[in-house]
UniProtKB/TrEMBL annotation:
PROSITE patterns assigned: GUANYLATE_CYCLASE_1, GUANYLATE_CYCLASE_2, PROTEIN_KINASE_DOM
Keywords: Cell membrane, cGMP biosynthesis, Coiled coil, Glycoprotein, GTP-binding, Lyase, Membrane, Nucleotide-binding, Receptor, Signal, Transmembrane, Transmembrane helix
Protein name in UniProt: Guanylate cyclase
Main location: membrane
Amino acid sequence: MTFRLFEPTTEEFKEFQANLELRRKHDFNWTSPPGDDFNFFTSAFHDVIILFSLAVNETLGESGNLSDGYTLTRKMWNRTFEGIFGNVSLNPNGDRDGDYSLWDMTDAKSGDFAVVANFHGATGELEFVGDIAWPGGATDPPSDTPFCGFDNENPACRTQDSTLTITIIVSSCLLIVGAILILAIYRKVKRDAEIQSRAWQIKWEELQIQDDHARGRGSSAFSLGSASLKTDEGKQIFTKTAFYQGRTVAVKRLAADQVDLTKSLLIELKTVRDLEHPNLARFIGLCIDVPNVAIVNEYCPKGSLMDILQNDSIKLDWLFKYSLISDVIKGVQYLHRSELSVHGQLNSSNCLVDSRFVLKLIDFGLLSFREGAARPRGSHAQQTKLLWVAPELLRDPKRGPTKEGDIYSVGMVMREVATREGPYEVEAKNMDVGEILKKIKLPPAGLQPFRQRATAENVDSSISELIKACWAEDPKYRPNINSLNASIVKINRQKNTGTGILDNLLNRMEQYANNLEELVEERTAAFLEEKKRAETLLYELLPRTVADQLKQGKAVDPESFDSVTIFFSDIKGFTELSAQSTPMQVCGLLLNDLYTCFDGIIGNFDVYKVETIGDAYMVVSGVPVRNGNAHAREIGNMALALLQAVGLFTIRHKPDTKLKLRVGIHTGPCVAGVVGLKMPRYCLFGDTVNTASRMESNGEAMKIHVSSDTKVILDSFGCFQIQLRGAVEMKGKGTQTTFWLLESNNILTKRGELDISRLKNTENWLNRPLVDNQRLPEGTLDDGPMSITEN
């Protein structure tokens, strides 16, 4: 069923509808499309205009003000007038008393609705015009109240409701009990399955054993750092490490010929493996492959607490000490609350420190297994470990580990951290470990029990009092682990005002990171400097373009050049001069000085030095970067500059002897490429190289011998003075017409005009002062920068 506004069916409404359709077509030229039903709501707008007109006419008839909206609207209220629908009534509140129709579905398949009743708002009359199809074939509407009443007041329903309630309660109880039983059975079956699954078992083949010193210390030696307390072998014992499932683990070998896996041992193995706490080193598994029986635990790279305390290079302030003591107490507290209940073997050697300086306990549980360690009973290491054991347990070893015994061991560890001394370290200077243990076992007999001093320099008095309380002879007077933890928390709160342990560690980590950043920057700068030096050296050995290709891993293929100019020079009379000098003088005082001077000069020209062999000096232009015909000009200017420099050059060990340079130049095609992988060289190949060499060998001292090919190009610049030498017979070349290059009117370089007396390095080498008829060593020179005069 649904309610809708009453839709009129009178003739007046139909006539209004037809007139409206005609006006819409006449005024707006718009006709309703087929199937678009007329919306009878538009008649309501017509009634509104009639009502407003009535109110306006009455206001005007009373000479009222149409701007008075309040009076105008009040004339529309509480009145009835004739509208399109018929009589339109407005109540005293200005609301229209509407007429509504009740529609009911006449056909469920087609979904057709029809009017079954009309409600007239003005009179409150309900008029039925059809039959209502009530659900379930009923002829009347449903009852206003349920059969049993809203509060179950019908007596006929009470007995039935009580029986239902009892049934529901009993069923719920049975379901809950059954669920609990099923859950208990499931947990037992699951626990048994986990115990029998041996998830802790590790095969020996799965462990990749490392060397003893591959990872540094894991569990510390059992020595106490004093001369009298050492291992039997006189050295520290390191933990075996191995790789297991992608991580490093600590492996503790056990001397066991067989492993009897009883149910109690399986339960204990599962219990130990399920223990997980930030201050416990996780038990990973057990290897039972005889003879490689071993316990596998989490590996802590910083070693044991004993290692850290004995390492004087590690500075521990009291904030750090409080943190270590707190970690020990939290680890023991978790064990005391767990199914394991006790540790039983606590000492500073099985308090490990991980990479984040978090202390973690190890060697808890599996006491029967751990008693089978490789070190025999009565050994020095075993006796040393007894110094952490409570006196009552020393007197009665069969008593087994207790929580009170753990508290005594915690006190021993606390003193080690506070003083950075081993247990009974002072007493050990005058007696051995056995004597110390005997005095600890002796009953006090009214005297103070034998203990080491709990106080020391710079040790907080509150810590000293806690240590003494942990060492009480009567176990019942020792504090429990909860009160001990509360005391440490209180001390931390009092001592660490403003900052906490975490803040302190974060500050340390930040400082460490800053140090690393500075170190990285320093190493990076050094690397970049070395890289720059290597690149500079590489660019000196090979052309820059070729060196860049080699740096990028590209192959340098040989390249052909159509026209280059090659320079060859050597020293006339070099053999005789070498015979009169020592090899050191020839190498260092002659050739090195001369070619250093040459190298400084050629840097001012667009040339590339190919190589030096003995007194021979080879330079090329136009290779590897082509420069048109400028290669002849660059080589010509360079040759003149070198000839001028040789005239001013002084031999350090023979100042009265003048060097005589012989130069040959030739222009032509050639092929250039890198030869070799070790000490690669950039070499030139072709007849041009041979001809240039012949030009040098057939030249004269202190003259520049130029071929006809080179002369043609030099003449094109118009600045060189060249003299005809004539026909020269050359080996393998026949008769060649050659020339002498005399001078250049304008010696141009790629940087400007050249002043040979102020070239880089040249002036210092030429004008070096004499000391005992010897030039100063090279390292004493103040080599000034190169100076180029630009006109």
